[in-house]
Amino acid sequence: MKKILLYVIITITAFFMLSPMLWMVSTSFSKDSIIASANIIPRDFTIENYIKAWNFPKVFDKSVTFGTFFLNSVIVTACLVVGGLFVDSLAGYVLARKDFPGRNVFFYAALATLMIPIYVTAIPMFLIVRGLGWINTYEALIIPFLSSGFGIYMFKQYFQTIPIELEEAAKIDGYSDFWIYARVIVPLAKPAFGTMAILKFMWSWNMFFWPLIVTTDIKMKVLQLGLTMFRGLNVTQWGLLTAGMTIATLPPVIIYIIFQRYFTGGLMAGSLKG
Fold it and tell me: Which CATH class is domain 22-30+41-270?
């Protein structure tokens, strides 16, 4: 009886937590309107909103659509996830296994970046990017965020849980440090990579502030900036807006479903050893 009651409470709580998303999906499949409805089940079911949203706005430039913003986000996110995992994991491996002067200083400096909000570093970063001539380029959106203090910390902590005897055996066989990292460490650290892939994807996909200040050309706008164009000065087309929001929400959900089995294990293992 207690289990049944617990499941009922969890189900009701989950429904209330998911109700905003259910409303968004329902509205996206309903006829477009400037009046927001409160229906969870769509009325007058249609996919027209998705077709119009994907081809929106075609106002400033006929070649630019919502699909252009989506593609920009895919490129930026893919580069940040793949490049970020590589850079952070290499740094974490060096800090976990190599003894060199200043190792602790470097590690604590990386951790210190977690305490500095982007709003503090935005102006210096913008001046550097502008000086390099990277305004309205993928370089401006990708390179400043290839490395993260949390990623370095996460990988370092996880790598320290891997028995060092495995690496020593590989060294006896004559393999280089990079080969050991690529063929021994990486396969054993799938939970850490899965966890960081999810976190980096979520952060990269939802970037808004930084793209807002380094992209002035509409062709370089990312998805989150594109969503703001669905809102008019006087009215909002709720069908188009919710269709765009649903399109923007699907990739993170899919990525989480794919990597969820690594997520909890990676977070827990990374906190076991300091």
Answer: mainly alpha
